[in-house]
Amino acid sequence: MNSTWFVYLGFAAALLIVGLYALLTMKNVIKLFIGIEVIGKAVSLVLLSTGFAKNNILLAQSLVITFIVIEVSLVATALALIINITRRTKSLDVRKLTKLRG
Amino acid sequence: MTGQILLLSGLVFFSILAILAKDLIRSAVSLAVASLFLGIIFFRMSAPYAGVFEISVVAGLITVLFILTIALTKAGGDVRESKLATLIFPLVFIVFVVIDVLVMKSLLHKIPALPDTAESGSFGDVLWKQRTSDLVGQLAVILAGVFSVLALFRKRDKDE
Predict the structure, then answer these.
(1) Is A46 domain-assigned?
(2) Which of A78, B122, B126, B146 is 20 to 30 A off residue B87, Cα-Cα?
(3) Cβ of B106: how many Cβ atoms within 10 Å?
(4) Interface with chain A: mutation pick from B7, B11, B15, highest number of A CBs within 10 Å
(5) Which of residues 6-45 of A touch B (CB under 8 A)?
């Protein structure tokens, strides 16, 4: 069972690096947020695979469901923010956000 | 396990596609497909509730929200991503995968296994009886999300 767990951990680490790469190199705000989503997938994969490997799948499932609910709330808020930002700056470019005005 | 590895590879592949696709709609759809793969992985790990949530909420609702946002922000125009970032990505990814495999192989028998505790009861028992306080927190987060969206889309005053 231990080796199975490491396979899941390896794939989750790969997902994490994909998300981090997007966060570090992309300029489009929506792409940055997609990067955060990919990191979220890695987290839920680690949570559930650990529960699976340790025979604790019920608790892991309820944690993943909590995570998904919170993720939806986060996505709704962040996308509303992105729409407002785009209305103000007329662009999706994250570099245009450097000029903050009070 | 082979099927599971294929599904995991599909998940990573579609996540990479979501990051690298030039068209934002394609990115959003690739993300949905990645969620679908993750949901199937959850089902195969005998976690049906998590799988249902992943497929219905993440692959369904979040994709709809993403596509709606992309449609509403079309006036923002295209943002040019640097070509260098796209070109370097395969190299970075392959180097990372090699390091990843080596590290996981070396850790395989060194980390002591967590205690293996068998669970009893049903999923409902665990969710409603063991994790009651968390559910209150969840409700608070959902309400916070609703109020923040309402606050962000409120009608502006004319002088603003």
Answers:
(1) yes
(2) A78
(3) 9
(4) B15
(5) 6-11, 13-15, 17-19, 21-22, 25-28, 30-31, 34-35, 37-38, 41, 44-45
